[in-house]
Design a protein that fits this description.
Blueprint (H helix, E strand, L loop, with lengths): L1 H14 L4 H6 L7 H13 L2 H58 L5 H15 L1 H21 L1 H12 L4 H22 L4 H8 L6 H15 L4 H8 L4 H13 L2 H58 L1
Length: about 300
């Protein structure tokens, strides 16, 4: 219903004499800056049907990529929650009961067992902190990131350095940047305009500031490839393809090739991650359960074994 009302408003504005791009710009929650800029360029160059066709293909690609990311993250999120809840239940309910029995059987349990029992006692007494503190920390981090540019920069920088997920996210950002840059350049926008609009769609403050520096250097007369190289944020593949595009005049084609390679690489890595995550999390959960149970039960088994002897 909401989008239907927006379309009706756009239609009304166009019938009232506004350009399609100007009518869409009145609804930034539905049509972002890139979308409006491309429509406006299509109107100016007389290539609106071609622009709309390219936008359709790009939106399909973006939706497919988003679905893949959600699918890859859904199982780890679910499994991680299950692991946390199982460990919490063991430490709060099972371990204290076993500790009572164990203290009766063995007066001098190992240090590891004593440590586990102590942790269990703390978790049982302050269970609300163990459940509430992580939630509060996440909310606090989000609030800090929204209120402080420096904090947002540091968080985004840390995300890009995460093992496995960091490089994968970087490739997704580069694929998105390359696709939109090529799309805007094909539609007739200048390089500086493409970079300026791309700054707002990468979704990472580190890459965004890097693109701002690139734009300033190009504006001062530095070549496109050299400007990107000076920032030291873009991998050799991007730099090589930019150099080819700058030399041949086919910058859009070169960037579409970058997008193709990264998009294919992301799909392959997503598939591998999905295959690895399930057995890995199963092993982690099994290891935690076995570790807790062995730490508690091994002293009891030792006592029972000695009694039998």
């Amino acid at each position: 219903e909401g989008f239907k009302a927006i379309v009706a408003s756009v239609l009304e504005d166009v019938e009232g004499g506004l350009k399609l791009s100007d009518a869409m710009a009145e609804h930034p929650q539905a049509f972002d800056q890139v979308f409006v800029a491309l429509i406006r360029t299509g109107e100016q160059t007389g290539q609106l049907p071609e622009v709309l066709s390219k936008l359709t293909e790009n939106l399909k690609w973006q939706d497919e990529l988003s679905a893949q990311v959600k699918k890859a993250m859904m199982y780890p999120a679910f499994a991680g929650t299950v692991i946390i809840l199982v460990v919490f239940a063991l430490m709060v309910f099972l371990v204290p009961q076993l500790a009572i029995t164990m203290k009766t059987l063995t007066p001098n349990p190992p240090k590891a067992t004593l440590a586990l029992i102590a942790i269990s006692a703390v978790m049982k007494q302050y269970w609300y902190l163990f459940l509430g503190v992580p939630v509060v920390l996440v909310v606090a981090l989000i609030a800090i990131a929204k209120s402080s540019d420096e904090a947002k920069y540091r968080i985004d920088s840390l995300i890009l350095k995460l093992p496995i997920m960091g490089p994968l996210l970087n490739k997704i950002i580069l694929a998105r940047f390359s696709t939109y840059f090529a799309l805007m350049y094909q539609s007739g926008l200048g390089v500086l305009d493409c970079i300026q609009i791309s700054e707002k769609i990468v979704g990472n403050r580190v890459i965004e500031e890097g693109l701002q520096r690139v734009g300033r250097e190009i504006n001062e007369g530095t070549g496109i490839t050299q400007a990107f190289q000076n920032v030291r944020l873009f991998p050799p593949l991007v730099l090589r393809m930019l150099k080819v595009g700058e030399t041949t005049g086919g910058l859009d084609t070169a960037l579409l090739n970058v997008s193709y390679f990264y998009n294919r690489d992301v799909k392959e890595q997503m598939g591998k991650l999905q295959e690895m995550i399930q057995p890995l999390l199963t092993v982690v959960l099994g290891g935690i359960l076995i570790g807790i149970l062995v730490t508690v039960f091994s002293p009891m088994y030792d006592v029972i074994a000695k009694i039998k002897l």
